Amino acid sequence: MLTGLLLLTACSGGGETPPSPAAAPTSPPSSAAPSPSSSSPPPAPSSSSSPPSTSAVPPVGSGKVVVLDPGHNGGNASHPGEINRKVPAGRGQTKPCNTTGTSTNAGYPEHAFTFAVAQEVGNALAAKGIKVVYTRQNDSGVGPCVDERAKIGNDANADAVVSIHADGSTSPTAHGFHVAYSAPPLNAAQGEPSLKLARTMRDGIRDDGFATSTYIGSAGLSPRNDLGGLNLSTRPAVLVECGNMRNADEAGQMSSASGRAHYAQAIAKAIEAYLAGA
């Protein structure tokens, strides 16, 4: 899909769908970073060359904040008036608040896929001491709108905002993932930081065995000027289209628990790699 802190209007459904901001979704565990353990005062120097005592080293993600934005929402389809309401989308544009997203040919919906993957990504990051904020807390609500999703990431002062989606191209050969970023940039965060996040995300997902898109972008990267969640972000932000839900092989991966876990693992590792070098 080219549609759902982020945020964007990607997915075949035509937009990003935001849900209500806040702390973690129903399932993910607490994302608060663990506080490093305290250490005793250093021992008095001695003639022997024993190594000095050291304090516990905080995890790499300690103090970092990541906003995860699972695209769309389960209640969008039953609230057309609300999700079709026009909202600011950046660059002087307005767009529908959100969209319903796409689905596999067998009916597995994008909003369920993105929510499940986001929770697994969040669990992995929280275990590394990273604070995780989600743009929606369940898969049965409406929205939030794309501008609200962007605001969640901005208000959280996120070190990285990652919007998770899946595409719905009906082209018989269309498959593969791509990572969208705002271009040309509208602020400093949309420049090098977002491009670095996009490249790191692309590299990480590709290195985990996923093929880059055969039909959108170039080498897995897609500069965009029409995605509200990205346009309105003042933090490093990207939108990941994990693959094409209408492609039989990728639909199978997205519909299975093991496949979703694989996507989540790749995305989480890429986020960690970005934060380590940020």
From TrEMBL:
Protein name: N-acetylmuramoyl-L-alanine amidase
Record's keyword annotation contains Ribonucleoprotein: no
Keyword field: Hydrolase
Compositionally biased tracts (Low complexity): 29-38, 46-60
Superkingdom of origin organism: Bacteria
Gene Ontology MF terms: N-acetylmuramoyl-L-alanine amidase activity
PANTHER family, per database record: N-ACETYLMURAMOYL-L-ALANINE AMIDASE (PTHR30404), N-ACETYLMURAMOYL-L-ALANINE AMIDASE AMIC (PTHR30404:SF0)
A family per Pfam: Amidase_3
Bias (Pro residues): 18-28
Matching SMART domains: Ami_3 (SM00646)
GO cellular component: outer membrane-bounded periplasmic space
GO BP terms in the entry: peptidoglycan catabolic process
Domain named MurNAc-LAA: residues: 150-272
Lineage, top ranks: Bacteria, Bacillati, Actinomycetota, Actinomycetes, Pseudonocardiales
Spans annotated as Disordered: 1-95
